Amino acid sequence: MTAQILAAELGNLIQDSKRKNAELKNAAEKALQDLKSLSVTSEAQLSADLSRRPHFISPFLIACNTRNAKFGSTAISCLQRLSVSKALPRERLTEILDALKDCVTLSHDVQLKILQILPSLVQNYPTEVRGDALATVLQICSALQNAKNFAVSNTAAATLQQLVIAVFDRVATEDDKSLEIPAVTDVPADDGTISIRPAAHDALKVFNDLNLLLTGEKTTFVRFSPLPSTTTLEVIEAILSNHAKIMATHAEQTRVLRSLLMPTIIRSLSDRLSFPITLRIIRILNLLIRNHLTLMPSECEIALGLLNHMLDPEASSSWKRALCLEVFRGIYSDSRLLLQIYSHFDEQEGKKNIFGDNLASFVRLATEKPAVIGLGPQSSLPVNRNDGKNSASNQAVAEAGALAGVIGGHANENNGSNHPAGISTQWSNLKTPCIEHLDKAEPPPMPETYIYSLVLTCITNVSESLAKFVLPLTVHHETKSKRKTRPEENATPGGEPAHPPSSRKLSRTQSFRKKTIPVNPLSLEEHPAYAYIQTSATLVAECWPAILATCSTFLNAALDADYYRALVRAIQKVTQVAGLLVLPTPRDAFLTTLAKAAVPSSMVMANVASPKSPPAEQTGSKGLLNVDSLVNQAASALDKNRRPSYEASHLPTLGARNLLCLRALLNLAIALGPTLRSAWSIVFETLQVADLVMAYSNQGGQRTPVSGARTEADVSEKIETETSAVQSAARRLFESTADFPNESFVEVLQALCGLIQTSSDNTPSGEQTPSNTGRPKVLHQRRLGSVSGMTLSTDANSRDSAFALNKIGELAGLNEERLASYPPDDSGWDVLVTELVHYSANHRNATQSRLLAADILCRTVKDIAQSSIPDEEREEVQVRILSALETQISSLREDDNGDGSFADADVRIHQIALAALKSVIEQCGESLIAGWVSVFDSLSSVYSATSSSESDNTASAKLVSIPEVVEVISKTLARTAFGTVQLICSDFLAAVPDTSLSTLLELLLKFSCQQEDLNMSLTAVTFFWNVSDFLHARSDLSQLPSLASATTNGDDVRQTIKTKSKEGIASALWLQVLVDLSTITTDRRAELRNSAIHTIQRIFENYVDQLSPDAWMLCLRSVLFGMVNANLSVQNRIRTDPPATDDEIAAWNDTTKTVLHSISKSISMYMDKVGDASSLGHAWADLLDLLQQYFDCGSHALGASVFTIITEVLSRVGNAQTVGIVPLRKTATVWKSYFERRELWHNNPEDNQQAFITYAAAFKAIYRLADKFLKSEDLIQMLRNLEACVVASDEIPYSSDVDNMTTLQTQVIECFSLVHTESEGLPEHLLRTLSSFGTLPYLRNMEQRGPTFVALAKASMALLHTIVTKHVSDNEIYTNGALLAVLTSLEKPIREKYLWHREGKSPTLWQKATLTAVAVLETTLSHIKELEGEALRPIWTQIVAIINGVIRAQLSTYPFTLQKDESFDISTFTQLRSLITIPLGSPSLPDALRRTHARNLFETSLLHAPFDGEIPDLASSPLQNLYEVRLGRTDSPTCTFRPNMTYTTLTELFALVAHHDGIAEERPARVKLAQAAAPYLILRCALPLRAYIADHPLRGRMPQPESQRQELIFVLRELRRLESEPASIPDAKGVKSQFGKHLHRLYPLIVRALEVSRGDGEVFGCLAKLMERVGGEFGVDSE
C-alpha cells in the first residue's frame, strides 16, 4: 500500500513540475524508477530497501526547498509516511530537518503534517536525533506553536510536551542500560561535576533551557521561539509528574531544580501574577513538595511558609488562598509526607513550625466569618436563602432533627444576606478543584464557603493520615514461635498469672490477659518507622489544641450531613490516635468535646422542668438506647396533629447529629476500652444524660410540626438509622469488656457504680417516687456530671439510677464467668454485691430502681449458679452467691407491716429472690441433703396464715369431700414458689426425706385447690403423678391391704391412710396420692377435676400389674368407687333447686364421662393383667347399682357414659364365667331399664344420637356374653328398644343419611345381624322389623326435620334377603305373614319409584327393592307354589303388584336416568316373567289374578294416551264396542316416555296368547293365561287400526305420525305371525279356525283399514297379507 501511495505521489510531482521545475521532475522520475525497480514483498522489506537508497527522498527535499505549497504538501505527506515506516535514510536526517524548517510557513495542512513527523523522528531515530538535531526538532515545534491558526498552535504545544517527555523517556531507558552506555560528558552538580550519558545530557540541556525560558533568560541549547509562560510551566509540570524518579536520582537535574526552578517558584509566589501562571506555579510546587521535599528542604520550607502566609485574607486573594488550601489538602492526605514535614521543620530547632503555623491559620480561618459558616451554640443544617423551597425544607429538617429552640433558631444571624449560610456539598464545593482549572484565564467563581470547606477537609485528612499510620501499629502480631508459647503470655500487667492454678479456661474468659490491651506504638523501639512513631506522638501532643479548636468551631457551625459526619470521624480518629499513643490529656479533651456534642447544651438542660409523670423507660429493665424509645422519639418529632405546649417546646431531644456524636463516642470507648481508665466516667455520664434526654423527649409531648411528607419520612428514617447504629455500638461496648483484664474491668464497674452512688446521695429522705400532681416546675438543681456541666432536676435521679443499674446488670451478665472464676476482691464481686444490696435495701430509693437492683443481683447469682464450677470450688462459690440472696431476703422479711402484709415493693423483691432461689436449687438441689423442712415452710409462706391454720385443723373425715379453698398472699409470689415446687417434684424428689413427703403432698394439694391460677392447679395435679412414680419405686404395694385391714368403712380407711403417710410409710404415701387426687375430682373447675381423673387413671395403668387382687380391690372401692359416689352426689345436686346452667351441667356430664371411662380402663387393665378375676363379679354388680342411678337424672349424656363403660368392660371379658351369669343378666336388666325412664327425657332435652349409639354398642357387648342366657321374650324386647332408638333418633346436624347410614343405624343393623334367629318368634320379628325399616322413608313427613332412613332402608333390604334365605324352608314365614310383610315392604318403593324423590346414590331405593324382590322370589317361589289355602292368594297378589310396579312408571317429567331405568326394568321384568309366568297360570289361583296381570300388561303396552271413551271398562267388558271408530284427528298424539317397555309388554301379551307346543304339564297353565290375556290383546290390536281408519282419510297426503305408524306396522306384523291358542278365543259365528281366531275378531277393522289405505303402500301390503291369511282359513258350516 505504501509503495502505491508513494508511486502516485511521485507521479503527481512529475506531472505538476513538467514545465515549472525540471530538477524536481528529473529527481521524481528517477525516484519513481527506483521504486518500481524494487521487489515489494512486505512493508518492512520496502522500508528497509528505501532507507538504503539515500537519493530516493531527493525529490521530496527539492519540493520542500521550493517552498511551493502544492509541492511542499506532497513532499511533506510522503516524508511523514516514510518517517513512520522508518524508511528515511539516516544519513540525510539533517537535510530532512532543514526541509521541514523551510516548510514551516506553508499551509495549515503542511504544518500539521510536520507536527506528525517530529514525534516519529524522535521515536524511530533516537540515536541520530540527538544534540543539535534534537534542538532543531524542538525549535521547529516551538516555531509552529506561534502559528496563528489555533489548531496548529495547540497541536504544537501538545507535541512539544510530547517531545520533551520522549527525551526524558530516553533517560529512563538509558538508566536501565547504564552499564552498556558510556558517559559522554561531565556536567556540574551540587557536589562538583558528574559524568552523564547522552540521553541524560540532552534531557539536562532541555530542562535547563525550559527553566531559562521561564525566567526570561537566553537559552543555551534550543533556540526556542517565544513561548507563553503557561506552556513552559505545563511542560515542566509534565516532566516533574512523569519523571519524578529521574529528578530525584540525577544530581544534575536536582541542581537545576534547586538553582533555577525553586527560586523562580518562590519569587512567583510573592509576585502578583495572573491566575493561569500562578495556578501552574502552585501545581509545580505541589509536585516538588510531594516528591522532592527531602532534596530541597530549605527551599520547601520557604515555599510552605509562603503558602501559610498566603492563607491570610489580607495577603492574598480568595482564589490564591483556595489554591494553597488545595495544596495542603493533598499534602495532608499522605501520612508519610505529613510526618516528613513535621519532622523536618516543626521538630527541628531553628526551623519554621510549618504544620503548627498551618493549624493556627486554620483556627483563624474557622472563626474568620462566623455568619458565613452558620456558627451557633450547636451544629445545625446549612440554609440556602437563594432557594425558598430548599430553605424551608432544610429548616424543617433542622428543627425536626436537632434541639428545639437552639438548632434552627440561632444558626444564622445575618438574615439580610442572600448568600448561603453554612457549609454544604450543594454550594460549598467546586465541581472541579481550582487547581485543576488549566483552561481558564481567570479564576473560577468560588462560593464564599469554599475556603472553609477546604479547611474542614484538611483537618479531616490530617486525622485520617495519622490514623492510617498509627492504627496498624497497635495490632498484636505473633510469629510462629510466639504462637507456640502463647499460654505463657497470658499474664496480667502485674506479672501474676492471669488465672489461678485451679481455674479452668472458659470461652468468655480466655482473653483476660495483657494482649487485649492495644500495643502502644511508642514501645516499638525496633520498628523501622520508630522515628515517625515518635514524630506522630509529638505532633498530637503539641498540636492537639489547634486541631481541637478548629474542630470545636466547626462542630457548632452549619454543616450538611456529609461534612458533619466527616468532622465527627476526624475527631474520632484523632482521639483514637491520642489514646493509642497513651496521651491522656488530648484524649480526654477530644472525648469531652464529643460528649458535649452528643447531648443538648447546658443552657437548655438547665431549664428542663420535671415531667408530670416519670418516663416509662425509667421504670423498665431495659438499658440505654433501646430501639422502641428512639423510634417513639422519631415519631413524636413528626406528629403534625398536636401543637406543642410551653413545656414541650422547652424539652430537649436527641437529634440525628447528637446520635452520630454519641455513636462516635461509643466506638472510641470500644477501641480504647482497656486504656481509658478514668475516662470511663466521660463515656458513662454522656450515656446517662442521653438516656435522660430521651426519657424527657418521649414524655414531654410533641415539637413544632414540620411540613412535607418527604421531609418527615427522611428525618424519621435518618433518626431510626442512627438509633440502630448507636444501640449496636452500645451493645458492642459492653460486650468488649469481657476481654478486659481484671484491673480494667474493675475500673469500668467502679465508674458505673459511681453513677448510682451519686443518684442515691442526691435523693432526699422519704422521697420514693416523683410527684405526679401539679404543673411542671423547676425543681432543686443537682450536679449531673463533670463532663457535661449540666444541672438537672431531682426527679431525674430515678432515671439516672435505672440507667446505671441496667448497665451494671449488662456488665455483670457479660462477665459472669470472670465473677465466678476469680477471687471476689479481684473480680469485682465485692463491689457489685455491696452496691446492689445497699441500693435495693434503701427505702428512700424509687421502687422501680430497687426492683431493678434486686433483679440484677439475683440474675447475676442465677447466671453464676448455672456456670460450670469445679468441684473443689463449688462450695465456696455457692456460699458466695447464696449469702448474697440471704442478705437480700432477710432484710425484706424484717420490714413487713406488722399485720402479716408486705409492701408492694417488698413483695416484688421477694418474688425476685424466690425466683433466684429456684434457679440456685436447679443447680445445687442434688447436694441439698438438709433443710427441706425450712424449704417447704418458706414455700408455704406464700399462703395466708389463716388458711394455713385452717388447713392444719381440718381433717378430711369423709370419703367424698369438697376441696378446701386456700388464699394466697400474692398470686405472683405463689407462682414463683410453685416454680420451685415444680422443680423439686421434677428433679430432686430423691433428696427429700420420707418424713417430709407428706408435707410435700399437702403443699401440692394446696396448690391444686387455690383458685387464683388454674394452670398452677393443673400443673400441681400433674406432679402428683411424679410423686406417685417416685414412691412406687421405693414402696411395696403388696402391703396396701394390711394398712386398712382393721377397717371396712371408706371414711375410716381414708383417715388411716393419712396417719400412716405422715409416718413416712411409702405404700401409704402412694395411696395418699390417689386419695388426694380423688378429692380434687369434685373441684368446681372442670379442667382441674378432669386432669385429676386422668392422672388417677394413668397411675393405675402404670402399676395395675403390680397390685394384688386385694390391693386392687382396696384401690377400686376406696378411690374409684369413691369418685363415682362423689360424682353422683354432684349430679343430683346441680339438678335440684337452684339448678345449674346448661354449660355447667354439660361440663359435669363430661366429668362423669371421664370418671366412668377411667373406671372402665382400670377394670379392663385389671382383667388383662390379673389372672384371678373371681372377685370382679361382685364389684361389677355393685358398680351397676351406682350406674343405674345415673338414669334417674334423665340425661342422655349420662346414659351414653353408662353404656360406654358397659361396652368397654364387657368387651374385655373373654367369657361369661369371668363376670358371672347373674351379673350379666343384671347388666341386661339395667340396659333395658333405660327406656323405662323415657318420661324423664322430656325434662332434659338433649340430643339422643350418641346415647342411642352407645346403647346399641352395649347391646352387642351384652349379647356376645349373654346370648345363651337371655330368654326369647327378653331378646325381642331388647330388639324393640333398638327399633325405638332408630325411630326416635334425632337429626344429626350437617349430615345426611340418604347415601350412608348414620352411626346409630349402622349399629342397629349390626345388632340385628348378630342375633341368632333359631329361637321361636325371632325370624318373624326380625323380618317384620326390617320390613318396617324399608318403609320408614315413606312414612315420615318430608317437611319434618329428622333422619330420612333411606340408607337404612337399603341396608335392611339386604338383611331381609339374608334372613329369608336362611329361613326359606321355614313354613312359618309363609303362614304367619312374615314373607307377605317382606313383599309388601318391597312393593311400595317399586311402585313409588318416580313419585318419591329421595333415592340417594345408586342403586336407588326402588332399584334396591326391585333387586331384593327378584332375589327373594327366586329363593322362595318354589316354596310358594306348594302353599295352599288363604296364605297363597295374598302372596301372589303382592307378586303381581311387584311386577306391575316394575313395568309401570308414573312420570310427570323426564328424568335424566330414564333410559337406564327403563333398561333396568325391562331386564327385571324379563327375570320375573321367566319366574312367574307358568306358576301364575296355576288352576289354584283365581282367574281374576291372571286378568289383573294381563290388564296391567295392556295398560303398560299403550304407546299413546287413549282418548276419552276410546277404551271400555277393562275389568268387566274389555271388547265392548270393539268396532266403533272415533272421529278422525290430524294432530300428533303424545307418545309414552318408555316406548321400549311398551313394546316389551305388548310382546308379552302376544306371547301369552300364542300357542305353545311345549311340556304337556304346562298346557293348562298356558291356556289359563291365554284366556286371560286374549281380550286385552284383541283390544290392544284394535286401537291402532281404529285410529288409522279414523285419521288417515283426513290427513290426505300428510304423513302419519312416526310413532303411530311404527305401532301400526308392528301390530300388523305381529298379528300376521301370531298363532293364537285355540282355546283362548271362542270361535266366531260361522267361521272355523285353529290358530287365527284373533284375526276373525279383528276382520271388520282390517277390511275398513284396507279400504282407506289404498294410498299407503306399506300399510296396504301388511293388511293385504292379513286378508290372505284370513281368507285361507275361512270355511262354511256343514249346515
What features would you describe in this structure?
With 1679 residues, the protein is an all-alpha fold. Among the domains are: 1-115, no CATH class; 130-271, no CATH class; 598-763 and 780-832, no CATH class; 959-1153, no CATH class; 1173-1270, no CATH class; 1291-1477; 1481-1679, no CATH class. The chain has 70 helices and 4 strands. The strands form 2 sheets. It has a two-stranded antiparallel sheet.
Q: Which labels suit this protein?
A:
two-stranded antiparallel sheet; coiled coil; 70 helices; mainly alpha; Mon2/Sec7/BIG1-like_HUS; 1% strand; transport
Strand tally is 4
Q: Report on the biggest sheet.
A: 2 strands, antiparallel
Indicate the low-confidence ranges by residue numbers.
Answer: 387-417, 479-514, 606-649, 701-710, 764-794, 948-962
The helicity comes to 55-70%
Strand order of the largest sheet: 1-2
Radius of gyration: 61 Å
Give the structural class.
mainly alpha
Task: Write down the overall mean pLDDT.
Answer: 80
Shape: flat
Strand content: under 5%
Give the terminus-to-terminus CA distance.
147 Å
H/I helix tally: 70
Topology:
Blueprint lengths: L1 H15 L5 H16 L5 H9 L6 H8 L3 H16 L8 H10 L5 H17 L7 H14 L4 H27 L8 E5 L2 E5 L1 H18 L13 H14 L1 H6 L1 H20 L4 H18 L4 H14 L7 H15 L2 H12 L7 H13 L3 H4 L14 H14 L48 H21 L9 H5 L45 H26 L5 H20 L3 H15 L3 H4 L21 H11 L8 H4 L6 H21 L3 H20 L9 H28 L5 H20 L19 E3 L7 E3 L3 H18 L1 H6 L2 H4 L1 H13 L5 H20 L4 H23 L10 H21 L7 H9 L4 H9 L17 H17 L9 H13 L4 H21 L5 H4 L6 H13 L3 H15 L5 H18 L5 H26 L7 H28 L6 H14 L6 H16 L4 H4 L1 H13 L15 H18 L5 H17 L14 H12 L7 H18 L10 H17 L5 H4 L2 H14 L13 H20 L7 H16 L10 H23 L6 H15 L37 H15 L9 H33 L6 H16 L19 H16 L4 H17 L6
Antiparallel strand pairs: 1-2, 3-4
